[in-house]
Amino acid sequence: MHIEIHGRRDADAPTLVFSSGLGGAAHFWMPQLDALTSDYRVVLYDQLGTGKSPAALPADYSIDAMASELRTLLASHGIGAYHLIGHALGGLVGLALAIQQAPGLRSLTLMNTWSRVSPHTARCFSVRKQLLAGSGPAAYVEAQALFLYPPDWIAANIEQLQIDDRKHVAGFPPTDNLLRRIAALQAFAPDTQALANIRQPALLIANRDDMLVPWQCSRELAEQLPNARLECFDYGGHASSVTCPDTINTTLRRFLASVIHDTEFAA
User: Fold this and answer.
1) Deepest in the core among 13, 36, 133, 174, taking most CB within 10 A?
2) How far apart are CA 22 and CA 10, in angstroms?
């Protein structure tokens, strides 16, 4: 599996591990690097079967398997204590790590994440799968921005999006891998007790204009975790780490300082 380690390399550096959403690629987190690498060791990776981590995923692929793969990857690079920041599917990986009682997991930041897939989100994925089957990867990729970003942000960044779309089509994953990753995230449904047993401090970030995952899903998840708080923003869409990086980076830094240095988290 492809891994990148950025920022501080000294032994005392706190380590942040970023886990991406459905796309699975490390480069999703590029807007966070400059803001965090001066104070932290930042670990990015391409999830198995995506990007630079090619593999044929099994038919019964699961979020638990993704968490186990990440545990093995971190152990192979000598990474002990760490703070997990996950977006959507990546947040589910974080929850699975916590439920597995993964050694070294110190805190969770869960962006646009859920404990059970909303019927709205399920409908969105149904449409996306039908689009892929009927019109192919190019149409799937072009529609993807509609689920990720606010309309005005798309309009203001249309030229860069068109460049990115061509890259995404060129590097589109095997269809079976994508469908099995979607099935895995839809099947992940930890029970109430498993969530109640998670003791790590957790920050949940949601956006009221997220058209893929209703922000209420994050509120529900926050209520199920014993040591969690929710930060909900009016703007940013599903991928606010890209559309509003300054807001997200500031929020991350404040939360991480609170859990690492035992200070009060101030929004």
Assistant:
1) 36
2) 32
Contact 108, 199 (CB under 8 A): no
For the stretch 104-140, pLDDT in tens is 999 999 999 999 999 999 999 999 999 999 999 999 9
Evaluate the CA torsion angle 17, 163, 244, 206 in order and state its sign. negative
**Do residues 77 and 35 lie in contact, with contact meaning Cβ atoms separated by under 8 Å?**
no
Q: Which of 122, 103, 126, 97 is nearest to 214 (CA)?
A: 122
Amino acid at 183: A
Neighbour-count burial for 132-162, b at 16+ CB within 10 Å, e otherwise: beeeebeebbbebbebbbbeebeeeeeeebe
Residue 126's closest CA among 70, 79, 179? 179
pLDDT profile of the chain (267 residues), mean per 10: 96 96 97 97 98 97 98 96 98 98 97 97 97 97 97 98 96 96 97 97 98 98 97 98 98 96 62
The residue with tokens 């490390």 is: 26
- The DSSP line for 89-103 is HHHHHHHHHHHTT-T
Closest CA to 60 of 204, 154, 180: 180
